[in-house]
Design goal:
- The chain is α+β, with helices and mostly antiparallel strands.
- The chain has two domains: 155 residues, 3-Layer(aba) Sandwich (Cytidine Deaminase, domain 2), CATH 3.40.140; 174 residues, no CATH class.
- The protein is 34% helix and 27% strand.
- It is built from nine helices and 17 strands.
- The strands form three sheets. Strands 7-6-5-4-2-3-1-8 form an eight-stranded mixed β-sheet. It has a six-stranded mixed β-sheet with strand order 10-11-9-12-17-13. Strands 15-14-16 form a three-stranded antiparallel β-sheet, with helices on one face.
- Helix 3 packs across helix 4 and helix 5 packs antiparallel against helix 7.
């Protein structure tokens, strides 16, 4: 038995509208949520035309001209704009009857290309039990006939399986939201033996280690630790009734474990470092989950991935911005201080789900509006752009290990935070004088004893 896709009714109208404007074919992405029992599609987004197509007002005429690289790039950009719980579920193609015969082969290639591109960027791995089917939706522009099939993206030799495509009104109007703010303080040492301090690569390696901490963290939902297999709303229904407003939002606290546990042992190693990367601040995270008896583990998994994605995406955006504005050599700058882009949210019409984006301080609202129009084919009013964060997350790098910056995240630091910064600075200066002695001592003890490594 194939999968069932529950689809927001507005998508049917959207697909019908673009089928009359763009010929002989148009491609795009399906956005929604994967669940064990069923999938939900809440947005469809056409592939934006290339600049030369805009200027010449032309459309490609043959399926052989489908630009996989352009479509996968679009998918990567769109995936950054999706909060936790949402992902690119597949691709669609609307084609004339003459091209319909070859559409499915083109769709199959696109499904696997898009998934491969998105997987490369992720710092988390899907669980074995997760759904790995992705949709390939084919629509005839003349007859409006809809054919939905799925492919298992974990199996390159996967054959097409039929799937049901069912429209439903107000599909995500009462989905549940989980919000949290995560304090970030990541220190990534740069080894002196590294011949080239590629900060982008080293940052990703450091974020990989940090992401494992997030995966192992404890999550308190509305102040409680809940069993993974319980229903997310179990306690709320009894205490607060079943009104929509009382079950919309859950406040989540993230408790990062300090230790790897007594059952795991590691050996100390001493590595000479010539610099470091520091990420410090607070990031706003959000995940959405369907309202069909969602499990706690589904909600927490969605939020974990949003925490990991949002910091990774910001760093990617920073490096891309530096390369565009200052050239590729900026990947190896010696001493820099940057503020990562802030997160913002924009509502989706007819839904309580909000899409996401990132904004540098010098970016105008008009640039955000243009990006939403191009990437998500959505018109956005300036008053609908909600900046999520008031505290900047800063990125600091230094190739002089003795001059590592301790960067305040805001000008409004309280006395306690200021004392912590001062203390950290003094400790670094102290290390400057006794670092060699400590390193020698640790090396001697490490050869005799093994001990547990405690992470920040």
């Amino acid at each position: 038995m194939g999968r069932t896709y529950f689809v927001d009714e507005a998508i049917g109208q959207y697909l019908s509208d673009i089928s009359t404007k763009l010929k002989p074919y148009v491609t795009g992405l399906l956005i929604g949520q994967c669940c064990p029992q069923r999938d939900y599609v809440i947005r469809a987004v056409r592939t934006p035309p290339k600049e030369e197509q805009k200027e010449d007002n032309i459309s490609p005429s043959k399926l052989a001209s489908v630009d996989e690289e352009w479509i996968t790039t679009h998918a990567s950009q769109v995936s950054r704009m999706l909060p936790g719980g949402l992902l690119v579920l597949g691709v669609f193609m609307i084609a004339t009857p003459e091209l319909s015969k070859d559409s499915q082969n083109a769709l199959r290639r696109l499904v696997f290309s898009v998934e491969k591109s998105l997987t490369k960027r992720r710092l988390w791995k899907p669980a074995e039990e997760e759904v790995s089917d992705r949709a390939a939706l084919q629509i005839c522009s003349a007859t409006k006939k809809v054919v939905c099939r799925t492919y298992d993206v974990r199996d390159p030799k996967s054959s097409a399986k039929p799937a049901d495509w069912k429209y439903q009104s107000a599909l995500s109007a009462s989905w549940l939201a989980l919000d949290c703010t995560v304090n970030v303080n990541i220190h990534i040492p740069l080894l002196a033996t590294s011949p080239n301090h590629d900060l982008e690569k080293n940052t990703k390696n450091g974020l990989n280690r940090w992401s494992k901490q997030i995966e192992d963290s404890v999550f308190l939902i509305n102040g409680q630790v809940k069993d993974d297999d319980t229903e997310l709303l179990e306690g709320q229904k009894k205490l607060r009734g079943n009104t929509q407003s009382s079950t919309q939002l859950s406040d989540v606290k993230v408790l990062t474990q300090l230790s790897q546990g007594s059952s795991r042992r590691s050996t100390a190693t001493v590595q000479v470092c010539s610099g470091s990367i520091n990420l410090k601040g607070a990031v706003k995270c959000r995940a959405y989950i369907h309202n069909n008896k969602p499990k706690v583990k589904e909600a927490i998994q969605a939020l974990k991935r949003d925490i990991i994605n949002t910091l990774s995406d910001r760093c990617e955006i920073l490096f891309e911005d530096l390369i565009i504005n200052e050239g590729p050599h900026k990947k190896n700058f010696e001493r820099e201080y940057h503020v990562l882009p802030q997160r913002l949210f924009v509502p989706v019409a007819g839904s309580n789900v909000m899409l996401s984006d990132y904004k540098f301080r010098d970016e105008a609202d008009g640039e955000i509006q243009e990006r939403f129009a191009e990437m998500l084919d959505q018109s956005v009013q300036a008053e609908d752009i909600h900046i999520a964060e008031e505290i900047n997350t800063v990125f600091t790098s230094s190739l002089d290990f003795h001059a590592v910056d301790i960067c305040p995240v805001t000008d409004n630091m309280d006395d306690t935070q200021q004392k912590q910064v001062t203390k950290a600075t003094l400790l670094l200066k102290l290390q400057q004088n006794i670092g060699v002695v400590i390193a020698a001592a640790v090396a001697v003890f490490a050869s005799i004893f093994s001990f547990n490594y405690f992470s920040d």
